[in-house]
Every structure is written in structure tokens, then in C-alpha cells.
Amino acid sequence: MKIKLYTFLFFLNAFFLTAQEQKMTAAEITAFKEDVNVVSKKIKSLSTDFVQYKHLDFLSKDIETSGKMYFKEPSMLQWQYKKPYNYSIVFKNGKILINDEGKKSAVDIGNSKIFGRINKLIIGSVSGNMFDDKEFNISYFKSKGQNIAKFLPKDADLKKYIKQIELTFDKEEATVVQVKLLESSEDYTRIVLKNKVINAKIDDSVFTN
Amino acid sequence: MQKSTIQFLLINCFLLLILVSCGSVAENFTPKKLEKTTFEVPYFSDPKIDYVYKTNITVYGNDISGIFIAKKINDSIHRVVFTTEFGNKLLDFEISDKSFKVNSIVSELDRKILINTLKEDFRLLLQKEHRITAAFEKDGFDIYKSKDQNRDNYLFVSQTSNKLEKIIRASKTKEKITLLFNSENNIFADKIQIIHQNIKLQIVLQYLKSE
């Protein structure tokens, strides 16, 4: 009797899981990757608002911060928190420039492998073009109106910090609407991107900090 | 004769200097009648509150910033997490008066001396109840002395606002750590400074107001 109940619950569970998120077929994966590649190839610049939710299992509420992000080809990036504090970080020409409530500092990352990786990861996450990355095992899912790509790091060093990256794409636009970085099964950072503007003119001075 | 007088004076001055610097932290305090045996610090004591702070750490001229999170998870233990602004966890502790457990720490910070320093700082910061052994007053503060192993903690409570504004952790002769609190509501501290006297380490915590 007990076994029957468990079997029933298992199938019920599986049913609801599949109802929310389904694995893509090989053909769907090919089509999805193609869509994203076409869009991301066109991205010369990008600006977007974001809201970041830091979820820690023991907290009663997620920690919410928000701001604006700018990207310009080939690899200039500014991540700017405006609420509840002013903190911005620029990745440019092998350097990280930080402005923390007016207190400025710079880190020369030069050939630092890990920072190069992080830079590539952020730009890849936002533009969506991460499918050729050999550092991850990628799996693909679909749900209503959205496509989801899940990236599992292969590298042991990277694994220590990131268990999984989940990129959620709007099905119509084939652009990223949410980035989720899982540190463990309980703790993650979820970044929701909205008011995205593609290829508007962004002056280089934005990336000075 | 005159030369030896000067020498004598100089030696006396040095002796005085040594004696002064060897004096106890409480030397200039005026003793007061001890009216209570414990002091309760309100700032991290409510298990319903997520205590979240923007943090700046200056250590030997290097700056590190991030988010400091503390939460009382049961009667005696606080969970303490420090993350970057992006949310990556740098360290994750569970700490009480008697116990200490590292849940995770990034390899760059995994140094025994650093962990021990932070353990002492956080324990002092999060400790709710202090057993008082003596009371003093000075410059508008009631000062309560509490013994903690081989150290003494001095708690400075403003006589006008009745808020805890400072804790000094000292050896018999020297101040080791100073904690400064600014609190509007006496429920949590809006700003906290942790200053070390013997190493170049300062931690500033600014309360994050959620909207």
C-alpha cells in the first residue's frame, strides 16, 4: 500500500515537473541555438535594468539590489548597483575598475585566468552566447514562453564557486531575461533583466568609473 | 649636578610613560555601584530579523567590500555569511559563545590567522549577554566591565540615550579591539565599526535598508 502511494506521488511529481519544464528535443536544441546565435551576433551594445535577488536558505527574505548594466563590443562591461547603495564595477582592457560610493580602486587582472573567465561568463550570460563554451556541460529545457539553458561547469576550480548557471530566454526575442547562479541547492543569486535596449549608442565614457 | 637632574627627570618621565601605558583601560574611570549582573545587547538578538550590511574591510591597505549577513538561527547560534556585491559567497560561519563552525570559505581567505581574527570579532559583535563584574562612569557613559577568558570587555552605554555605543576588548594593559555602534532605534545598529589596535584591520558595516 505504502509503495503504491509512493509510486503515485512519484508520478504526480514527475507530471508536474514536466508540466513546468520539459527537456528539448535535438531538433529544438538546434533551432534554439540558431535563434540565439543570430540575435547575439547582432548585439554591438546593450543596456538593461536589472534586479538581483540573493537567496540564502536561512534568511526570511531575499536580499534585493538593483541597477543598470551596460555592454559594448568587444568586451567593455559596466555593472552598476544603484539601490540600496551605489557600487559600480567596470571590466575593460584587462582591468577591473571599482567605484564604491565614490571610493575608487582598480585591479589589473592582466592575464588572470579566473577573471578572464568571469568576464567572458558575464558577457556570455547577458548576450546569451555561451553555447560554444567548452567549460560547461549544457542541457536545454523549455517551458511556457521561455527556453532555459543549464550550464554545469566542468572545471574543478569553477565548480567550487558555481554549481550551475541557468539562463532563461524569452522565446520570441531569443534574448536572456534571467540569469540564475546556483552556489548550492539551497543558495543562489537570481538576476532579472528588464527594459533591455540593444544597439543604442553607448559612449565609451560610460566605462570609465 | 644640573645634568644629573635632567637625567633624573628624563628617567622619571620614561617611567611615568611606561606606567601610564601599562595602566589598566579602566584606570581613568570612576567606579560606580554595580546595579545589575548582566547586560543585554539588542543589536543582533532578534531571530526574526535578517541583519544585512554593506561592508568595507581595510586590511593592511587593501580594500575588500561586500555584503555581511547575520541571522540568529537558534538560542545560541548565529549564521554569518559574507558575499561579494554580486552575491558570491566568500565565507559562511556558524558561531556562538562556545562553538564555531566553518560551513564554507573560498581558498583565498582560508588562512588560520584571518579566521581566528574574524571569529573573535564576530563573537564579540554578536554576543547577546555579557556578565558584568564591575561598573564605572566617564564622560557621559556608564561603563560595564565583563570578563571573557583572558580578556576584559568594556561596554559603554550612553547615559542620555541609554544605547550601547562602544565596546572595548582589552588585555590587562592594552586595548585590542574597539567596536563602535550607531543606532537610531536601539533595535539594530545602522553603522558599526570594528577597529583593531594591534593589526591594521578595520571593518565598517552599514545597514542595508530594504524598500
UniProtKB/TrEMBL annotation, chain A:
It comes from the Bacteria. The lineage of its organism: Bacteria, Pseudomonadati, Bacteroidota, Flavobacteriia, Flavobacteriales. Residues 1-19 form the signal peptide. Gene3D superfamilies: Lipoprotein localisation LolA/LolB/LppX. Pfam families: LolA. CDD domains: LolA. Keywords: Lipoprotein, Signal. The keyword Disulfide bond does not apply. This is Outer membrane lipoprotein carrier protein LolA.
UniProtKB/TrEMBL annotation, chain B:
Keywords: Signal. PROSITE patterns: PROKAR_LIPOPROTEIN. It comes from the Bacteria. Residues 1-26 form the signal peptide. This is Lipoprotein. It comes from Flavobacterium hungaricum.
